[in-house]
Amino acid sequence: MTHQAVRVRGLRKRYGAITALDGVDLDIQQGEVFGILGPNGAGKSTTVEILQGHRDRDTGDVNVLGQDPGSAGRDWRSRIGIVWQDESAPAELTVEETVHHFARYYPRPRDPDEVIALVGLEAKVRSRVKALSGGQRRRLDVALGVIGDPELLLLDEPTTGFDPVARRQFWELIRKLAAEGTTIVLTTHYLEEAEELADRLAVIAAGRVAAEGTPAELRDRYGSLATVHWTDPGTGPCSEETATPTRTVAALMRRFDGEIPGLRIARPTLEDVYLRLSGQFGGTAADEENAR
Ligand SMILES: Nc1ncnc2c1ncn2[C@@H]1O[C@H](COP(=O)(O)OP(=O)(O)OP(=O)(O)O)[C@@H](O)[C@H]1O
After folding, report:
1. Cα 190 from Cα 194, distance rounded (Å)
2. Pair 250, 165 in one domain
């Protein structure tokens, strides 16, 4: 039986004149990897900070692991892992000292040496935090996020600044944690990352959930048609947008009587969906209000 890890209804938050969240609803099941996508200023960080209990909301119901983050106590906090957008580790300590030190804050921490291995920092155990590269520091941030053996891990743009190899290694780490049953909520600007990792995702735009579902559902619901490309020996490159690409290819086969020159079928990507939704809904809720 699955239980709900996060339930949000009608969440609203203003910063002075700026409406950051304008009625967000979210349902995240235990054990799920849930991605939050959206353009700059859409309200992703504000949402995550409210789920973490680090930001007050104006109105709305928020339930995270059975409690309201606004009033939950230490026990609840020890069940949540947070990977901050800004580095949180003290610069003068070594990697080993830092992870061991943070483990003491939790009632039932994971083994610090195992966690160092999990994030791939074994070779750096004796390096001072200040001597780590950006990507290595981020791994340390993840280590500190999981050292308390959290049921729910909240990550705000975890791979910003990673090189492509580090990003793939980080994805492996997230998959490992997910396989262990950790519920994971992450915000990201990388559509490929959302597609790779997320069981379900929400696109937030202008302080509202513009769309929600599995990556495949979103592609089906909001994606454009498939495009069949081929090269006509007389006229050159041709393309046709169609909901029935197989039929188009069958017609081309009859026409060319054999191999179709330059045949390529492009399916809608999550990027198409994202661009369509964020174009449709704009950036912040305040932008929307100004535009009205
Ligand atoms: N502390 C703050 N004070 C005033 N306005 C804020 C504050 N934090 C966020 N905002 C505003 O609220 C809106 C939502 O910001 P938020 O950081 O939640 O967006 P985001 O989706 O995480 O953006 P990004 O992708 O750029 O990180 C923005 O218009 C932002 O300028």
Report:
1. 6
2. no
